[in-house]
Amino acid sequence: MGIYPRHSFLRQKRLRRTGRAGGPAQVQIHQPLQRLKVSKPGMSGARKVHIKSFGCQMNVYDSHRMADTLAPEGFAETATPEDADLVILNTCHIREKAAEKVYSELGRVRALKQAAARDGRRIVVAVAGCVAQAEGREILRRAPSVDLVVGPQSYHRLPALLARVERGEAVIDTEFPVEDKFDILKAPSREATRARGVSAFVTVQEGCDKFCTFCVVPYTRGAEVSRPVAKIVAEVEHLADAGVREVTLIGQNVNAYHGEGPDGSPWTLGRLLERIADVRGIGRLRYTTSHPCDVEASLIAAHRDLPSLMPHLHLPVQSGSDRILVAMNRRHGRADYLDAIARMRGARADMAFSSDFIVGFPGESEQDFRATLSLLDEVGYAGAFSFKYSARPGTPAAEMADQVPEEVKSERLQRLQAAIDRRQAAFNARSLHRSFDILFEKAGRRPGQIVGRSPYLQAVVVTAPSTAIGDIRSVTITEIRTNSLFGALNATPVRAREPMPAEAGG
Ligand code: 5AD
Ligand code: SF4
């Protein structure tokens, strides 16, 4: 059975609430396109696809799966749009700036398309991702050079949709289909997996039921849906077999995971992590992005019991003020958040945390903002992302009174970012002369150097042969420059879990 029927009605209802989606049915716009030559495999070599991802890791994963699904259709990936037969922009709608970026990118693609047409070559332009889902037909109105608009739940239909584009239709598919796209999307080839490196994302959960009042995700990605355990394990085994050493399980609300286990009962994320830790070849596990309300006992136990689960958790709080957390409909207060952090630290003393913050949410006073600054001090984050509140059409917060003036948002963002930078520098400084296991991912900028990541996602540069790429090796940090750490390989691996020393007052 597909995994969407339970929620499909709800999804359409939510989308209608925004008043901006393409509507429940697949819409065809009969706008004949000029028929130009599209090279076919076996005729003038493989066709080429260029996919540009904006936004979050979910989009990076989706872009890979689109490329994998197009590979058997004769499409090879290209890093440049100039020589592509198909350009896909995989878009993000989370903030206004992100959405507008797509239109400026489409301006550039239109110029390429026109230049190619003068040479008798056709570039097909597709818009995928959350802007596609949210704006649907509006994209074709604003950017007539677009041939295809495809929402995140329809990527498995790409070959069929492209066939319709080739027949001269402009196509929009923003449905939430009943079939499970993950059953139809193609798995990557060994070569594709290797080319993408030793660290891979695996989507385990999509969508969100939380409805924070500022956020478009529940509308663009729909209701929470979890993939079954067996399918995730098979995907991880396939990746491990091709040389992947680190897997990050991803989902908009990943710790709300409740996929069907082999025994037919819903499994928690903690249980899933425990199962995946057994996959041979996988040396490291991570997951993102988590919600504070779903930090439950089995997840804490996983951090206590699984050495391969990295002691780093991205746990967005958005604000340190209880008043603002209520207005955001976050469903947790400051104390609940601190309690989740304390429970994690109780299970594993070397846990480090990062967060997302929004400044200038409607009604945010200077006092509320100071509560955010003080939370930063109280938690002692390893790093954080911070954003100015951006009103998104169709979300409740966009209608709230007391929108904060732009200058106030900018000033608060500056102060917050400076505080985050100080925290991050202090965290990095505490890594000096310490030893960590580093997973080496790629060659460094200088000859003879390779770069890897610490358990805390810090980039670490060492002088070592490139044959060490893919290895997890013990490194002592010898130098720190801005956000890069430099180190030297140790002879023996780190085995003991040494906690990061606590920051004075942190
Ligand atoms: N304005 C600003 N930031 C936002 N985010 C989500 N929606 C908005 C918005 N409307 C931020 C949140 C979230 C991150 C992915 O993006 O901090 O955690
Ligand atoms: Fe958006 Fe809130 Fe869901 Fe995160 S938890 S995706 S911020 S609605």
Question: What would a concise description of this structure say?
Answer:
This protein is α/β, with parallel strands linked by helices and 506 residues long.
Question: Helices and strands in order, then pairings?
Answer:
Layout: H1 5-18, E1 27-29, E2 47-53, H2 57-70, E3 75-77, E4 86-91, H3 96-118, E5 124-128, H4 129-135, H5 137-142, E6 148-150, H6 158-166, E7 170-173, H7 181-184, H8 190-196, E8 199-203, E9 205-206, H9 217-220, E10 225-226, H10 229-241, E11 246-250, H11 269-276, E12 284-288, H12 297-305, E13 312-314, H13 322-327, H14 334-347, E14 352-359, H15 366-379, E15 383-388, H16 406-429, E16 435-443, E17 449-453, E18 459-463, E19 472-481, E20 484-489
Parallel strand pairs: 2-3, 2-4, 4-5, 5-6, 6-7, 8-11, 11-12, 13-14, 14-15, 18-20
Antiparallel strand pairs: 1-7, 9-10, 16-17, 16-19, 17-18, 19-20
Helix pairs in contact: 11-12, 15-16
The structure holds 5'-deoxyadenosine (5AD) and iron/sulfur cluster (SF4).
Descriptive key words:
about 500 residues; 7-stranded mixed sheet; disordered N terminus
